[in-house]
Amino acid sequence: MELIFATHNPNKIKEIRQLLPKHIRLISLNDINCTRSIPETADTLKGNAKLKADFITTTYNKPCFADDTGLLVNSLNGAPGVFSARYAGPKNDANANMDKLLQNLEGKKDRTACFQTVIALNIKGETIFFEGEVQGEIIKEKKGGKGFGYDPIFKPKGFNGTFAELPLETKNKIGHRGKAFSKLIDYLGRVTPQEKKES
């Protein structure tokens, strides 16, 4: 079956394609020539994921899922949270976001944080949500050349390296997005035999 992932982010596509069963063909917004920026105006990760999924399902009438991820820093009262991608402005500049976060954490002893991902899947006329979380801390300087977003400054609990230093396979196994997508994949494994015939 074909399943649209409501993202333009090639890094997310790369991560998730490694996880999906082979009988599911993952399609990005670029693949369907959707260049519109889908508004993320909800005040929760769950709300934003549903907004994106609903927009694509309504417009293209195909099964679709969307995710929204936030980095929640305890000493900053959960910021950047739902604004993680646009923390330093509307350009979604990862380096600028990290620089602003590191600046805001200067002098703070508590650097604990967690990543959360919420996925909204629109399939067979209903919306199903899947969530994943990983605890860790924000280190004081960027390390590693892998990953994307805040990965170079987030060190997951129990590991010596940042997400940007860990192999993708390890990140997928322990990370917030990998946990959420594992739940999504388990669900698709139960419902896609019927969907495969219809798609």
Structure notes:
The protein is of the alpha/beta class and about 200 residues long. It has a single domain (about 1-199), classed as Maf protein (Alpha-Beta Complex), CATH 3.90.950. Helix content is about 35%, strand content about 25%. It contains five helices and seven strands. It has helices at about 10-15, 45-60, 95-105, 170-175, 175-199; strands at about 1-5, 25-30, 65-75, 80, 110-125, 125-140, 155. Strands 1, 2, 3, 4, 5, 6 and 7 form a seven-stranded mixed beta sheet that branches. Strand 1, helix 1 and strand 2 (about 25-30) form a beta-alpha-beta unit. Helix 4 (about 170-175) crosses helix 5 (about 175-199). The longest helix is centred in the C-terminal third of the chain and has 23 residues, at about 175-199. The chain starts with a strand and ends with a helix. The model is unreliable at about 195-199 (pLDDT under 50).
